[in-house]
Design brief:
By secondary structure, the chain is α+β, with helices and mostly antiparallel strands. Helices cover 18% and strands 34% of the residues. The chain is built from 5 helices and 16 strands. Helix 1 runs parallel beside helix 3. It is globular, with a radius of gyration of 21 Å.
Length: 297
C-alpha cells in the first residue's frame, strides 16, 4: 500500500463509521457482455485461498456457449504465477448482478456486484455476509476520484474497510518489453504487440497509452495496435512506425453512442524490414450489429 492509498483509506474509515447491519444489496443490473474481460485487483479483504499471492492479481471473465461465464483468477507468488479456473452463472431474477462461482464442484460461493462504474472502469464485489470484498479495475491503477467512488460503494453497505489490503500491481511494461525482445531473439521478422488499454468511450488516448506505445517501439516493436475503448482513438507515427491506439468497435453492438458504432479495419503491408504501408478503413455497425465498410468518396 502506498502513502496515497493509505491516506484515502484512513479518511474513509474515519468518515464512514460502520452502519447498523442491514442486508447487502447488489446493483440493479449488470451487462455481462461489458463485464467480461480482464480486471485488475486493486484491493481486497485477506482471503485464505489467496494467502500465497504477493501481487499482480487479476480476474478474467468470458461468456461461454452454454450461457455461463468462465472465470480465470491469476496472481504472482514467490515461485511464479498461480492460476485457478472456474465457472459462474447468474442467479435467477438478479439481472446478472448476483452470480454463483464454483472452482471445485459441488462447492460454490456468492459473487455479488455491489458497485459498478457507469462506464465499467471499476467494480466492487462482495457477498451477503461481508466476509469477502474485492475492488477491481480495468487498469492497474485507479484515479483518486474513482477509487473514492469504489470505496464509498463498499462503506455505504457496511463493509469494514479496516480489513482492506491494497494489491501490488506491476505496470505491465516490463513484461511486454520482455515479450518483444524474446520474439526478436526467437527470429521474428515483424513484432506487433496488441494492447488492451484505455478507457471505454474515450476518443483520446491517455498519456499512459502514449508513453507506453512509444516505449514499446523503442524496445523494438514494428507497430503498436490497441483496443478496448469501443471507439477509435486516433493514430500517430513514432520513429517511422505506426501506433493505432484503438480500432474502435467492430462486432460489439448495443451502444447508443454514435462513435461506438464505428470500427477500423486495419490494412498493413509488411516485409522483413517491418511495416512498409498501412491504412485504416471505416466500418459502420448497422442495426443488425453487422460491420459494413464505409464507402470511400
Amino acid at each position: 500500500m502506498n502513502l496515497r492509498q493509505l491516506l484515502v483509506l484512513i479518511g474513509f474509515v474515519l468518515a464512514n463509521p460502520l452502519r447498523a447491519e442491514t442486508p447487502v444489496a447488489s446493483v440493479a443490473s449488470v451487462d455481462l457482455l461489458r463485464y467480461t474481460g480482464k480486471w485488475f485487483e486493486i484491493a481486497s479483504f485477506p482471503m485464505f485461498f489467496q494467502r500465497n499471492c504477493i501481487g499482480d492479481t487479476t480476474a478474467e471473465y468470458a461468456l461461454r456457449t452454454d450461457g455461463e461465464v468462465s472465470v480465470t483468477n491469476r496472481c504472482r507468488t514467490e515461485s511464479g504465477f498461480d492460476e485457478a479456473i472456474g465457472r459462474a452463472w447468474p442467479v435467477e431474477g438478479s439481472s446478472n448482478s448476483r452470480l454463483k462461482v464454483s472452482f471445485f464442484w459441488p462447492f460454490r460461493s456468492d459473487y455479488w456486484i455491489i458497485g459498478i462504474d457507469p462506464d465499467y472502469r471499476w467494480a466492487v464485489v462482495g457477498n451477503p455476509n461481508r466476509k469477502y470484498l474485492w475492488i477491481l479495475s480495468r487498469a492497474t491503477e485507479l484515479p483518486k476520484d474513482q477509487l473514492n467512488a469504489a470505496l464509498q460503494a463498499a462503506t455505504s453497505q457496511g463493509y469494514d474497510l479496516a480489513q482492506l489490503r491494497f494489491t501490488q500491481q506491476s505496470s505491465g511494461k516490463s513484461q511486454v518489453i520482455a515479450d518483444i525482445r524474446a520474439a526478436r531473439a526467437a527470429g521474428a521478422d515483424v513484432v506487433i504487440p496488441f494492447m488492451h488499454w484505455g478507457w471505454e468511450r474515450d476518443p483520446f488516448p491517455t498519456e499512459r497509452q502514449r508513453s507506453l506505445a512509444r516505449l514499446l517501439i523503442d524496445a523494438g516493436a514494428d507497430a503498436v495496435v490497441g483496443g478496448h475503448p469501443h471507439v477509435t482513438q486516433g493514430t500517430e507515427t513514432y520513429r517511422g512506425r505506426p501506433i493505432i491506439y484503438s480500432l474502435g468497435n467492430f462486432v460489439f453492438d448495443g451502444f447508443e453512442l454514435p462513435a461506438a458504432k464505428i470500427g477500423w479495419l486495419l490494412q498493413m503491408s509488411v516485409d522483413r524490414s517491418g511495416v512498409v504501408a498501412w491504412q485504416t478503413v471505416d466500418a459502420l455497425i448497422d442495426a443488425a450489429g453487422i460491420p459494413v465498410p464505409r464507402a470511400r468518396p
